[in-house]
Every structure is written in structure tokens, then in C-alpha cells.
Amino acid sequence: LSPDGTRLAIGLHTQAGDDIWTKRLPNGPLSRVTFGPGAEYRPRWTPDGRSVTFVSMGAGNGVYEHRADGAGSDSLLFTGLSQEAVLAPDGRWLLLRLSGISGPGGRDIVAGLAGSTPDALTPLETLAF
User: Fold this and answer.
1) pLDDT digits (tens, 9 = 90+) for 68-86
2) Neighbouring residues of 2: CB distance < 8 A, sequence distance ≥ 6
3) Fewest C-beta atoms under 10 Å: which of 7, 50, 59, 78?
4) pTM above 0.70?
5) Backbone angles phi, psi at 23, to 5 degrees
6) Which comes out higher in pLDDT, residue 122 or 8?
7) Are 23 and 31 in contact (CB under 8 A)?
8) Element at 15 (helix H, strand E)
């Protein structure tokens, strides 16, 4: 649900593949946001409600951002495997779930600045709040 509560972002599987779509509530049409060759899933709204972040698997594994109206192209926020990601309210930090990537039982929650690489991530339990 968008920050202002007027739109929904969802991952849909169609004949074209797994992509991110938005819908204006309550009765607006579905609008496709992503058109990449890989599977895109787990959309999250940016704090300002202008864009959607999502995880992409395929040729360009990572976390991306795309304008919610579908215009423009994907912007890379994180290169590497991730199961889930959310952009912090400041728009600079990403919180990521790296399920099973770090080894058996690994469901690490890590943080990094947008644009970080896997070696620059900090496990959540080591961050001082």
C-alpha cells in the first residue's frame, strides 16, 4: 500500500513473466511498472510514494527502484542476491533479508547504503541505535 493509501503495488505472474504492477484504489486499472527479462518481485513503496523498489532475479540480480508510473528505467540500489529489501525513510539506507545466502540457517538482516555491494553490508545485530 502506498504511503498515502491510494495505490497498491503487487508482483504478478503473467505470460510475460513475473513483474511489478500498480493499481490505483479502489477501481483503477492495473499498470505494469517493470518489463525486465528476469523475475521481479516483493515490491515496496519508497517513502515519498513516487517509486517502487523490488528484488530482481535473472541477468541482473539485485534490488532496483522504478518510478511507480512506469516511466523511465530501473535504477540499481544493490547488486547481489537478496530475498527482500526496503528503503529507509531517509532514502539512503536499505534494509535487506539475505535468506539462505550466508549459509545454512542464514536469514541475515543487513543494512547498507543504497548502491552498496555485498561486502559493504552490516549485519543488523551490530548496528548501534
Assistant:
1) 999 999 999 998 888 899 9
2) 8, 9, 45, 49, 68
3) 59
4) yes
5) -145, 130
6) 8
7) yes
8) none
